[in-house]
Amino acid sequence: MSDFKIEDILNELGVKAENSGTSTGQKNFGSGEVIESKSPVDGKLIAKVTTTTKEEYDEVIKTSQEAFKTWRMMPAPQRGEIVRQFGDKLREKKDALGKLVSYEMGKSLQEGWGEVQEMIDICDFAVGLSRQLYGLTMHSERPKHRMYEQWHPMGTVGIISAFNFPVAVWSWNTALAWACGDVCVWKPSEKTPITGVACQNIMAEVLKENNLPEGISCLINGGREIGEYMSNDGRIPLVSATGSTRMGREVGTAVAKRLGKSLLELGGNNAIIITENADLDATLVGAVFGAVGTAGQRCTSTRRLIIHESMYDEVKTKLKKAYSQLRIGDPLDMNNHVGPLIDTMAADMYEDAIKKAKEEGGTVLVEGGRLEGAGYESGCYVKPCIIEVESHYKIVCTETFAPILYIMKYKDLDEAIAIQNNVPQGLSSAIMTTNMRESERFLSAEGSDCGIANVNIGTSGAEIGGAFGGEKETGGGRESGSDAWKAYMRRQTNTINYSTEVPLAQGIKFDL
């Protein structure tokens, strides 16, 4: 492993090796089962947390509700100031937190630091947002009446995050929710709980320094049952959940039954269309990073290349050459391109997907497989794999969270767009072309059906200024930039009568 001691990182972030997994800020507790967080980098134990019991969960929710009474009445710019201080703390802790993200999740160190930078960026965005929670004014049809709308905080926001972005997606939600006046209860992935403890510690410092209620930011740990508590809890008006489509269906159904609101960011099965007018040098960078970055464990990872038949053989040759240069190993060594999968179960799923693709008739262009031996003791390292397929194969329509890239041919752009859209997921998409008509067609209403559609960049990676999310089985939620803040607030329409009469709408007469 790279030359750093995990103990030093944990100390800097205030994380104990035997840590509780429940926190309401200054108070840490937990008496549930123990979760051991082991690094996929080398299989070693990082630290332990305890899961949250039902009784402890109820205490956390009550604490958050009490904190909401204070937090919602702070002027929004003052709430923004607290978020600004949190962002500054992240700047101070960026190196340590980025290393912990890399070691606990297995992504490259540059990506670990990049994820913390995303947290800083969304804090900056939320600070500005705190002075821009605008409503509208409308003209009333009644004389001497004024109409307008305003936005109010919702209450406790429940956040369920996934292992692949263990801290960034939480911050997308919390930074906006805090600016909007909500309080947050976070259940990080049970596969990456230590980064959750570290982030909670950082925010707890900010709240303590400002003499604010600890329940503004709360942490709970555990598996499926904790998510079920949140989904079925009428005290939580909004549940934001990131993860698999299967998980999202369960969360969305449970929240809908109690008429709550859910914000779902689920699976992706993202494609790049490579036209005969593509700049292949630029295309190769976007395609390869999209396919192997984070070992293919991004919801925006490139799963499919849809290549014009005239370019197909040339693209194949270039891909094989690029893949032959990939270095797989310790993600904290910045000479490596690809780190491990999150755990051995993920590696099993990777192998199973390759097997199914071959059984359906796929031809392997770049052979995959699990790596063994020195440096690969965790059993989580695999080779990025490329398989030639037909677009209708069942496995091609399934998201596999691993570095498997499926490639296929097309004849004309109509066919390419149809192939791209013919999967259940609808998160990210891209077209590589120097032809304006092709790019505009791809972005039109008859083009990509995804929430994200790019031209001449890959499917992977998103800036916080734009709303992030997708359609179909991706869940329809939107996080981060643009007007995604509205998901964290309730809209209220107000009518003010400043006359001495009470005229009714639509000219109705009601005389007493």
From TrEMBL:
Residues annotated as domain Aldehyde dehydrogenase: 33-493
Active site residues according to the UniProt entry: 265
Lineage: superkingdom: Bacteria
Coiled-coil stretches: none
Keyword match Oxidoreductase: yes
PROSITE patterns the UniProt entry points to: ALDEHYDE_DEHYDR_GLU (PS00687)
InterPro entries for this protein: Ald_DH/histidinol_DH (IPR016161), Ald_DH_C (IPR016163), Ald_DH_CS_GLU (IPR029510), Ald_DH_N (IPR016162), Aldehyde_DH_dom (IPR015590), ALDH7A1-like (IPR044638)
SUPFAM superfamilies xref list: ALDH-like
GO molecular function, one term: aldehyde dehydrogenase (NAD+) activity
Enzyme Commission code(s) on record: 1.2.1.3
EC class: oxidoreductase
Keywords, alphabetical: NAD, Oxidoreductase
PANTHER family: ALPHA-AMINOADIPIC SEMIALDEHYDE DEHYDROGENASE (PTHR43521:SF1)
Family: Belongs to the aldehyde dehydrogenase family.
Oligomer status and interactors: Homotetramer.
Name by which UniProt lists this protein: aldehyde dehydrogenase (NAD(+))
Classification of source organism: Bacteria, Pseudomonadati, Bacteroidota, Flavobacteriia, Flavobacteriales
